[in-house]
Amino acid sequence: MNITIDDSAGFCWGVVRTVNIAEDTLSKNQTKKKTYVLGSIIHNPKEIDRLAEKGLETISINDFEKIADEKPDVIIRAHGEPPSTYDKAEELGLNIVDATCPLVTGLQNRVKRYHDKGFQIVIYGKVNHPEVIGIRGVINDDCVIVKTVEEAMQKVDFTKKTVLFSQTTMEKPVYQKIKEAIIERVDNFIEGGETKDYFQSKNTLCKEVWGREKKVLDFAEDNDIVIFVAGRNSSNGISLFKHMLVKNPNMYYIEDLNELKQEWFENVKNVGISGATSTPQWYMEKVKEEIEKMTELELA
C-alpha cells in the first residue's frame, strides 16, 4: 500500500503567520505574564491543544473584565475582530497582539470604503462565522449576508447600488452563481444605463485556498481513497472536501485519529491524505503513521 500526503495541503501563509505570532508571544512572555487568544486561534483542535500546552489560553470577550488586572497580551486570531473588540481592550488596558490575516484586514477596509460610498454591502458567507462578525462590525451590521442564490434573490434590494464581497474561505462556484444571478436581476431591473453603475463584484476569496483547486482534484483522482483531515468547524476544510468529492467519492473526513476505520483500507493500493489550510502538517504525519499501523495489523 502506498500512503501519500498531499504536498499542497496544510497551513496557508496566513495561518503560518498567526501561529508564528502566537509562538513568539508565548516565548517572549514565558513566566512573566499570561498570553491569551480571543476565540479559537484557528479551526483545528489539534493545533489549539498543542499551543495550549505551551501556555496559550483561549478566552471570549466576556472574559476581558476578569483578566484586566493581569494586563496580559491578548492575541487577535487570523479571522479578525470588529472595532468594538479593540475599543473594549483599550478601555480595560489590555495589550492587543494583532494576528489577523492581512487578507481579512484588507477585506474589512474595502467593505468600509464601499459602505462609505453609499453601496449596499452583500457578503457571501456565514453570518456567525468569526470573519464575518468582524466584517459586520466594521459597518455596524449594515449589510446583507447570504449563503445561496435563493437567499440573495430574497434579501438584496435591487433598487440600491450594490457590491458583492465574499468571506475568504467560501466556495468559488457558489460565489460565481450568486454574482451571475444578481447581474441577471439587475439587467432586468434597469432601463438603460450600465449594470456596473448598479452592481460591482469583488472576489475576495483567498487565492491561496482556491489556487489549490486543480492540485486537490488531481490528488483525489490519483488515489483510491482519500482521508481528509480537518477541524469539523473549518469552512475551508468543508469546502475543499466537497470539491474533491466530485472527482473521488471514496473520501473520508476525519478530525481525530480514532475516527479511522480499518475496513476503509481493505483491498486498497493508493491512500491519499489531504487537509485544510488550518490542518497542521505534523498531524497529517500522525494520521499516516496510524494508517500504517492499522494496515500492518491487518496483514499480520
Overview of this structure, please?
The protein has 300 residues and is of the alpha/beta class. It has 3 domains: 2-10 and 210-299, 3-Layer(aba) Sandwich (Cobalt-precorrin-4 Transmethylase, domain 1); 13-101, Rossmann fold (3-Layer(aba) Sandwich); 103-167 and 171-204, Cobalt-precorrin-4 Transmethylase, domain 1. 46% of the residues lie in helices and 17% in strands. It has helices at 13-29, 45-53, 64-67, 83-92, 102-116, 130-138, 149-155, 172-189, 195-198, 207-210, 213-222, 235-245, 281-299; strands at 2-5, 35-38, 56-59, 73-76, 95-98, 120-124, 144-146, 162-166, 199-201, 225-229, 251-254, 270-275. The strands form 3 sheets. It has a 4-stranded parallel beta sheet, with helices on both faces. It has a 4-stranded parallel beta sheet with strand order 3-2-4-5, with helices on both faces. A 4-stranded parallel beta sheet has the order 7-6-8-9, sandwiched between helices. Strand 6, helix 6 and strand 7 (144-146) form a beta-alpha-beta unit. Helix 5 (102-116) runs parallel beside helix 6 (130-138) and helix 11 (213-222) packs across helix 12 (235-245). The radius of gyration is 22 Å and the shape is flat. The two termini are 14 Å apart.
